């Protein structure tokens, strides 16, 4: 696959837009303990694959499992970036707070206002049961201000909103406290070519072959063979990497993973 086609599938643009978000600073209580290992999927098993939907579920103690529409954000937020060609996570959180994003589930679902319209496909030579992605990728769907046919609520009545949108200072303890208290966070890292072949273990860049920037979701941390790591979910389906997840070295700002972490709290 041509490198230009691979780069088109990265989740973040080269330079993040300044969204004028506040930066939170958590004060650790004297009796507060940060565990050596943590996996948000174990603490909050009902949370979902996207950080915004995670936080609705977590903030409501599991009573509200609304899914936020990926497609509505991708196709309707003009300041968030270039749709399928990558975007700015900080602007996405800001858009959720200011404009709102409707509900919506995965491809072929009927659980929300606007389901994802692009069928899942295989990424980067993975060999699951999905068809191969188009060589040039998918094109961004048009922004449609209405819900899918058959959905009972109106588009405006289906919107979810953030009460807060913010960044987290690039400090390991601050990022850990944010995840422990409020759930998974979004992060951007500089991706190099060797990352495409990741299968398992703690990723440490050795190629120095810069490829682009990618947006991911940090869900926890741990240590493997005396190397501390962040536990992260990717967006390239579960047959990529370690069932769709990967580990990257923690505490050294590997590939700038700790530089630009962002999150928000939902308006319930």
TrEMBL record:
The record's listing under InterPro entries reads:
Papain-like_cys_pep_sf, Pept_his_AS, Peptidase_C1A, Peptidase_C1A_C
Q: Which residues does the UniProt record annotate as the domain Peptidase C1A papain C-terminal?
A: 34-265
Q: What is this protein called?
A: Peptidase C1A papain C-terminal domain-containing protein
Q: Which organism is it from?
A: Phaedon cochleariae (Mustard beetle)
Q: Which Gene3D superfamilies match?
A: Cysteine proteinases (3.90.70.10)
Could you tell me one molecular function GO term of this UniProt entry? Answer: cysteine-type peptidase activity
Write out the similarity annotation: Belongs to the peptidase C1 family.
- Known SUPFAM superfamilies for this protein? Cysteine proteinases (SSF54001)
Top-level taxonomy? Eukaryota, Metazoa, Ecdysozoa, Arthropoda, Hexapoda
Q: Which domain of life is it from?
A: Eukaryota
Alphabetized PROSITE patterns for the sequence: THIOL_PROTEASE_HIS (PS00639)
Please list the GO biological process terms of this entry: proteolysis
């Amino acid at each position: 696959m041509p490198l230009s086609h691979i780069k088109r599938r990265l989740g973040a643009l080269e330079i993040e837009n300044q969204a004028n978000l506040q930066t939170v600073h958590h004060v650790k209580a004297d009796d507060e303990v940060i565990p050596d290992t943590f996996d948000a999927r174990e603490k909050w098993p009902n949370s979902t694959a996207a950080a915004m939907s995670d936080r609705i579920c977590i903030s409501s103690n599991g009573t509200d499992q609304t899914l936020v529409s990926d497609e509505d954000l991708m196709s309707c937020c003009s300041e968030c970036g270039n749709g399928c060609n990558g975007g700015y996570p900080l602007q996405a959180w800001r858009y959720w707070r200011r404009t709102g994003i409707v509900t919506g589930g995965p491809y072929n679902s009927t659980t929300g206002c606007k389901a994802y319209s692009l069928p899942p496909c295989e990424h980067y030579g993975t060999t699951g049961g999905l068809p191969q992605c188009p060589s040039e990728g998918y094109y961004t769907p048009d922004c449609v201000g209405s819900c899918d046919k058959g959905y009972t609520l109106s588009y405006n009545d289906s919107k979810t909103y953030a009460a807060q949108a913010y960044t987290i200072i690039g400090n390991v303890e601050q990022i850990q406290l944010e995840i422990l208290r409020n759930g998974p966070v979004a992060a951007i890292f500089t991706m190099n070519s060797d990352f495409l072949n990741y299968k398992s273990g703690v990723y440490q860049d050795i190629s120095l072959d810069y490829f682009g920037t990618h947006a991911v979701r940090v869900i926890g941390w741990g240590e493997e063979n005396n190397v501390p790591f962040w536990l992260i979910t990717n967006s390239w389906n579960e047959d990529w990497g370690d069932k769709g997840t990967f580990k990257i070295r923690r505490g050294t700002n590997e590939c700038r993973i700790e530089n630009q972490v962002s999150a928000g709290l939902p308006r319930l």
